[in-house]
Amino acid sequence: MRSSFAPLALAIAAALTLPTLAVAAPQSGTTSGAAAASAGVLVGQVREAARGVALAGAAITVDGRQATTDSTGNFRIQGLAPGEHTLVVDYLGYPRHSSQVTIGAGTTATHADVVLGHVAGDATQLDRIVVRGQRDAQAMALNQQRTSTNYINVVSADLLGQFPDHNIAESTQRIPGVSIERDQGEGRYVTMRGAPKEFTTVSIDGVQLANPDSTSRGVELDTIPSDVVAALEVTKAITPDMDGDAIAGNINIRTQSALDRDGLTLRASAGMGRYELGNGDNERYNATIGNRFGAERNIGVLLSASRSKQGRFTDNVETLYERFDDGRIMPVEVQVKDYEGTRTRTGLTGRFDFRIDPDNLVYFVASDSRFEDHEFRDNLIIAMDQHTAASNQVTGNVRATFDKELRERTYDKSIRTYNLGGEHYAGDDWKIDWQVSNSSAEKETNPRMQYIFRSSVRPKMDYDYTNHDFPAWTILGRADAPATGVNLPEQWFGFRRLNNRVEYGEEDETGLRVDLTRQQSFLGEEGDIKFGLRSRMREKSFDDERLRNGSAADFNALGITMSDMLCDRVSNNFDYFLAGRTFCRDIFQKYASPLLGSANHRRLVADSVTGDYAAEEDVHAAYAMLNARWDRLTLLAGVRYERTRTNGEAAQYNEDTDEVVPVHASNDYGHVLPSVHLRYEAANDGVLRASYSTALNRPDFMHTAPYRVIGELETSPVTEGNPDVDAAYAHNLDVSYEHYIRPLGLLSVAAFYKRINDPLFIATHSEDIGAGLSRQVTRPENGKRGSVRGLELAWQQTFDFLPGPFDGLGVYANYTLADSEADLPFGAGSTELPGTSRTNYNVALTYDKHGLSARLAYNYRSKFIQSFDVESPELNVYWDDRASLDFSMSYALTDNWRLFGEVNNINDDDQVRFQGQRSRVLEMESFGRSWLAGVRYEY
């Protein structure tokens, strides 16, 4: 154990013993024994009648004292005088519940379980508002959001299940202010409120996830299936008891518990379908089983598992533009790519809960998510040089060099978390929460092999980008060349090389936390003070091994030509880019071994060493915060201090001496993070919130290491880390108003502003190397300041007031407007922050009645900048706007069985990247539609 663990470990040990000591020790202090004895405690659980599901977010009121049910539906109110009291439970989707409870004198807690949907003490069914299916899920989410002091959005697993989403990243895009970045059409990274993806943290039950991505803090959420969670909690205004590295906010994945309902939990589904492009398989299976055990049914065990398999095909064409010394911007490279791959995603979550008594709960949660992507990529590369004087961006004449290649790549990434924790009440005033956790992530790419064949013919070629999405190329002076296009003669190509590459990265974080909460009466009518300690110790490393065999003699010894490695399938990208026959998929198994075993198969030492790094980051934090309530007004204020220590290791390679030189760097800094949150419960179900909070964005791990990747020539570009770069620091303002529509709905508006000091960029500048020479150096740098501002609108409503059958209709819609600006390093002007889309919106029409549940959902995200070219800002890279129309439906065959179906990307929208302007298309790719149908069981 590291020495820095010791203080927090002692604190947790003390927390574990406090409940026992508090019960055993006599009451003392300023409160008399008689007064202490007169205090009463009311504990209970709120459930719904139909399935016995615990209802989180119910507002509990007893004679002016307030509480909110937790994720298992439990509540606790302390300090009640002995005698009769009125218990009021308010939960959207049900009539308000009111009943009498009798509080006894002394320390023994009074129990009052509430079942909404029945008259107290009677089995008569109330005129319950029908909110089954999708509406049950909507009610759960809205109630948790309504009772929160700070601004959050909650989406339950049942509601997520109504959307045809494949992973957690895609599920989050339905939430106001949240958008996603995609990889081959599938959601991968999450961005919130127009901020870079690194500004958003992701956790499971409060445990921050380790990240398999070696280059960014943005978590690759395509690793995690959408079927193994209970709810998503999106916090947009963080509080002092939360980790401070969340400028945009935090997404917490809450796992399911067997204590969330009365009896057996059993759900399962299976679905099969197709992807239109390539006719690939689309399969998805999941199952959840859980139950309560013990004489008092106070032990919960739940297991949830899922698996999906997707045969994804992608058409892809890329053109790279460069700015020449004379100012002209012209195409310099074209790649016509055919992707064929299989993505397999598995998830397993297990949870154990032991409610020892009403005052003590211990839990253990373990989760494992895996994502394997096995992919073949056929690629025709056209390198263009020797542009004529008359050439420009649209038309021109060049010399063309052609490469034809096949890459086989498999990467396997995983995220595991283990979380042991407890909640304990000690005496009348104290609550202790503690948690010990570990999260680890791995990403291994093996194999990653690539055959490259190069044309011995380098003809003159005309290009025409008048239609920038579908350009034309014409080869000149060759009778054997095609009249148009690039379906080139196979005999032009000869062996160039076989590349072999293996990548491995891992990240591991151990977390320790203890929180202590005490009732307070010195401010407001009631409230509490909370303080705690937190430590997170994270290690990250990346290793890249590159080898190559470029011996034509070794290949000739195989007795084959490139044509022998091609099969009958023809590349027909977008039904336009004809690139000839594609490679057979078994050529690595059949022909690679002699090349890999040859003495000419050599390690590329510089490439294999200079990109490797190891980094450590220890964050130790302490906080204190105050919660006070006055009737309708709630104040939450506090401060957090975080101390960060980093260590980074890398290696530099001396080309002259063939020496590998290890290098090391470290940093140590601290930040104070205050915040204030106000919540006012207006009349007629209105909630007004205002928040000021502060947060950090630490540099990516690889940039804390002093790596330096140098090209072959002295003047070649250099990429390096910058251990001295500062963490970005943000001041956040949030104001929101929510009006909750009964029986079930919401209208809300929220405005936000973020002032960011020292925003982080990957920037390029010129470095003087003497003798009148210079080279370009790319590394992380700080800008001076930046800002993000925006507006969120949301509308959810079920139209129960309409006449049948239209009373089953509903709407789920939200709109986000965001704008950002930041100063670039080196005084190079200003730009938007990466990831800022000016406009995001969702519109979903729903229907839920007579066993039919259907949803037509439209999602839109406007363009956003991805990366910067400081030297040539007109070549900054943008993702173009994208819209998707999806449909899902299910039909209840019985009380337990349902049929379901989904269709994705109905509008068959493509994804486009461009450099500076839409006419300079850097990348255009198409994925096609997909569909899936299956059966679902729920007990």
UniProtKB/TrEMBL annotation:
Residue ranges of every copy of the TonB-dependent receptor-like beta-barrel domain listed in the record: 481-906
CDD domains per UniProt: ligand_gated_channel (cd01347)
Recorded family membership: Belongs to the TonB-dependent receptor family.
Location of the TonB-dependent receptor plug domain: 145-249
Keywords assigned by UniProt, alphabetized: Cell outer membrane, Membrane, Receptor, Signal, TonB box, Transmembrane, Transmembrane beta strand, Transport
Residues spanning the signal sequence: 1-24
Pfam family name, one: Plug
A GO CC term assigned to this protein in UniProt: cell outer membrane
Primary location: membrane
Lineage of origin: Bacteria, Pseudomonadati, Pseudomonadota, Gammaproteobacteria, Lysobacterales
Gene Ontology terms for molecular function: carbohydrate binding
Membrane topology field: Multi-pass membrane protein
Superkingdom of the organism of origin: Bacteria
Subcellular location: Cell outer membrane
Organism in which the protein naturally occurs: Aerolutibacter ruishenii
Protein name: TonB-dependent receptor
InterPro entries: Beta-barrel_TonB, Beta-barrel_TonB_sf, Carb-bd-like_fold, Plug_dom, Plug_dom_sf, TonB-dep_rcpt-like, TonB_rcpt_bac
